[in-house]
Amino acid sequence: MKILTTNQMRQVEQDCAGIDLAPEKLMENAGKAFAEEVRRILGRLERKHLLMLIGPGNNGGDGLVAARHLHDWGAKVSLCLFKERGDDDQNFSLVKERNIDCLLVTGDENLGELAGLLESSDAVIDALFGIGQVRPFRDTLKSALDVVSDAKRNRPALRIIALDLPSGLDADTGAVDPACLYADNTVTLGFAKAGLLKSPGVERAGNITVADIGIPAYLVDEVPNELIDRAWGRSVLPPRPLQANKGSFGRVLVIAGSTNYIGAAYLAASGALRVGAGLVTLATATSLHPILATKTTEVTYLPLPEAQRGIISPSASRVVHQYLSGYDTLLMGCGLGQSRAVVEFVENTLLKVRAIPIPMVLDADALNTLARIPNWWQRLKDDAILTPHPGEMARLIGTTVADVQRDRPSITKRAAATWNKTIVLKGAYTVIATPDGRSRVCPAANPGLASAGTGDVLSGVIAGLLAQGMSLFNAASLGVFLHSEAGELVRAQLGDTGMLAGDLLPALPLAIKQLKETG
User: Of 159, 322, 373, 496, which is most buried by a Cβ count within 10 Å?
Assistant: First the structure.
């Protein structure tokens, strides 16, 4: 599913007119598709009161189409119009034929009636402005949105659903008008809009779904930015032949762990196993081997020489390179620590010897080491996926976390192009980008995943998929998606408070099973 800018969306709409998809047809498709999503979100519509805020343009027109369908499906619908619709407005005429209640808000004197309607409403639908709204809200419109916000604060069960995007959210930059509503759900039309996935807009959008409005996919084939969805995930899952053996599903070498971060090694290695890697070898400090062997019985081990107890020696890089040819993927960095010996070990392994013969996943302390080295990417020529969280990304590019979070997609794409690496910027709405300018965004935000160790699991998941023969971009993207799906399974069972990284491990095979079976 593609992610479009405003100009790209407008071009697509123009192209549709040339293939017998006139604006009127697109509006009918959009309104009905939106109404169907509202029905899915709210469940049975009988005896549900829906208050629809209708703007003067196309977004309001989509809302009028939706209002007609929602009424016909049993909902009690009330419209709040902020500008009169002309007698030649066919969609408004169809609404009037159904005797749907309409309140015309022409000044602040109508705000009391709006507040009264809100008291009896189960949901508010924001169909005021779409991708074309850039002016700040003022006067009555601002006051009306404030009334809706107050009603939501006083009654959190009141659901706010935005049509295409919350009004006042810039579809390109994610900037928001102060009066922009905090939607529980945004049903965006045709394709995801870039601004919905950027801060601060992402906080206003709530749960995002994309409604198919009949635009042919080939019209956006050249757009390089995508939103990961279940259909895509199912299409790229590695095959599992019946006559396979463990060699069929790849071998992963995981270099991880130190005295203070023993669990990181367990989580990373287990993540690779749980997505189907055939064999995982955990290379860790020799003194940690007995501890990890009692916890992680399914992996094999490569004990590495130590600088001190539980800390890998710089000389271990020679051991690693002796064994690399027997593996399909290298994962390095989880829980290694930042001691002087480890920093030297990472640099020796990645930058001071011959090329790495297999693709790599670099995380955590491998990234922290690279961040210390000026122009490290000019020395690391090998294929690699880097998986920084915002703090690690800020260190790598020499900026602040706030700057990274301000425009995550652009930051990630620039880093991928500069470093010639595949980048996974972790966090809510994780971004994956490639050196050639392609990017994907995972449409998931789960606060339960904001706990220690979940990133180690993700790195293992990506490495396990990469070992099964996937491309770097697809392995990184599918890994992020499966990790988020496992998080949703755990959240459904436990909630999002107290979720542990280890809870994700048994959920990963279930996420894959569900993806195969249900799509």
Answer: 159
The CATH number of 243-518, from 1.10.287.70, 3.40.1190.20, 3.40.50.300, 3.30.2310.20, is 3.40.1190.20
Strands (E), 394-438: 422-425, 431-433
Percent of the chain with pLDDT over 70: 99
Angle formed at CA 410 by CA 204 and CA 180, multiple of 5 degrees: 15
β pairing state of 76-81 and 101-104? parallel
What's the pLDDT at 519?
57
Residue with tokens 């998080």: 487
Helix (H, G, I), strand (E, B), or coil: what is residue 227? strand
User: What residues pair up with 188 in beta bridges, in sequence order?
Assistant: 210
* pLDDT exceeds cutoff 90 at 398: yes
Burial class (CB in 10 A: 0-12, 13-18, 19+), 94: middle
The two beta strands, 306-308 and 311-312, are antiparallel
Q: Percent of the chain at pLDDT above 90?
A: 88
**How confident is the model over 165-194, as pLDDT tens digits?**
999 999 999 999 999 999 999 999 999 999
pTM over 0.85: yes
Return d(Cα 290, Cα 148) in angstroms, integer: 60
Confidence tier at 136 by pLDDT (50, 70, 90)? confident
Distance, first Cα to last Cα, the chain: 15
Q: Is a pLDDT exceeding 90 seen at residue 457?
A: yes
* Residues 6+ away with beta carbon under 8 Å from 119: 151
- Computed on alpha carbons and rounded to an integer, the radius of gyration of the chain in Å comes to 26
Cβ atoms of 122 and 42 closer than 8 Å: yes
| Tens of pLDDT, residues 460-487 | 999 999 999 999 999 999 999 999 999 9
* Distance between CA atoms of residues 484 and 497, nearest Å: 16
For CATH 3.40.1190.20, list the domain ranges present in the chain.
243-518
Q: pLDDT confidence of 444, banded at 50, 70, 90?
A: confident
Instruction: Give residue 126's region: left, alpha or beta (phi > 0; psi -120 to 50).
Output: beta
Q: Looking at domain 3-223, which of 3.40.50.10260, 3.30.420.40, 3.40.50.300, 3.30.1330.10 is its CATH number?
A: 3.40.50.10260
> Could you tell me which residues come within 8 angstroms of residue 229 by beta carbon, excluding any fewer than 6 positions away?
1, 210, 443
Helices (H) and strands (E) in the chain — how many of each?
Answer: 19, 21
CATH 3.40.50.10260 placement within the chain = 3-223
